[in-house]
Amino acid sequence: TLIMKDADSTLSTVTSAIVYLLKVRTPLMDLVMQWGYVAQILTLLRRGLDAGLLGFLVQSTLRLIHQIVECTSCVEALIASPEGVLKVMLRLLVPDLSRDAAFIVQGLLSLFQSKKAHGYPILVETSIANSLTTKLLEDVLENPQLAQVIDPAACKVHTVSLLKLLVEDMTYGDQIGEILDGHPAWRKYKHQDHTLFLTADQRVDYFLTSDTPDAPQLLTWSGSVAETTADTRALRLKDGSTTTTTTTTTT
């Protein structure tokens, strides 16, 4: 147990160092692609999920993917990967919603914001084939487990933003819009116009600040045991006013 704990601690520390380095030295992400690591990271995530390793291994690969989707060349490598980036990422949301759903959906949003990436139309086409819109709507937004994830308010904002981004696609937007309009639940979100504001003390990347072996396991399914987290955030309403809410999450 001690050996595994030390290994997890080392893996987390190394991952944090890599993520931080890529944040402050963004050109290095192009080298990650050139050296062929992008496909390897996605394969490692898939293998971790196949083995049911929902701890530090899957957490670390997810964190790397979340960072490299900020780079167009890495997005192109993810799109071209035979693993299927959407197929793998959706396994973190369906059928069981990960407690880090907000972090995961934010990564997907960044992925689809890379519209200039070569192969982007294939990515959107693949989203239709994998029923991404329906899964985001039914398995994330309308999921009773949403209240149990870390930062459910942010999860909603990222999910709605992603769905609206897909609807705006020049080629497949109309088709995606028809799919969403076929779900009565979409009416609740279709015309929402709000922006999420995080408080000054809200952690931007909680993995970097909570990344210790003694901290609660962050990449776990919502039915797992975890500590209670309370987050305060403000929502800008359609009329321009703001409201501050505090969400307490216990699993």
Which spans of ≥5 residues are poorly predicted at pLDDT below 50? Answer: 196-203, 211-251
The strands making up the biggest β-sheet line up spatially as 1-2-3
Instruction: From the alpha carbons, calculate the radius of gyration and give it in angstroms.
Output: 18 Å
Oligomer: single chain
- CA-CA gap between termini: 24 Å
Describe this entry's structure for a reader.
The structure is a single chain. The chain has 251 residues and is mostly helical. It is built from 13 helices and three strands, in the order H-H-H-H-H-H-H-H-H-H-H-H-E-H-E-E. It has one domain. The C terminus is likely disordered. Strand 2 and strand 3 form a beta hairpin.
Write the layout of secondary structure elements.
Elements: H1 2-24, H2 28-34, H3 37-50, H4 56-68, H5 72-80, H6 85-90, H7 101-112, H8 120-129, H9 132-141, H10 152-167, H11 173-181, H12 187-190, E1 196-198, H13 206-209, E2 229-236, E3 242-249
Antiparallel strand pairs: 1-2, 2-3
Helix pairs in contact: 1-4, 2-5, 3-4, 4-7, 7-10, 9-10
Give keywords.
single chain, 251 residues, mainly alpha, three-stranded antiparallel β-sheet, GRV2/DNAJC13
